Amino acid sequence: MESADSNDKLFYTLIKKQKQTVNENVQTLKVNGKEVYGTEKLSEAWEDHFQILATPEDREFQENFKVKLALEQNNIIENRIKNGQETLENTDNYEVQKAIE
């Protein structure tokens, strides 16, 4: 019985040591084929990456039909408000279906 207890103790000691030595932080990052090292450089690389994701190129943005439609709708609402006109009321699916028929 003592042998099993000492084996368990050794096992859990080894597991604990492995957990303590693992560094979960990113040490290197490959950007455009080049490896980036160091905390400051890694932070800059991540910042650049997320900046690119957050700001699409204008041509890509304008080609998106849904974006064009949303911009057009926003312009209509803005113009109606600026001209003192009433804005459109919300409609439900029933009213849309009725208008289509």
TrEMBL record:
Domain of life assignment: Eukaryota
Name recorded for this polypeptide: Uncharacterized protein
Organism listed in the record: Dreissena polymorpha (Zebra mussel)
Phylogenetic lineage: Eukaryota, Metazoa, Spiralia, Lophotrochozoa, Mollusca
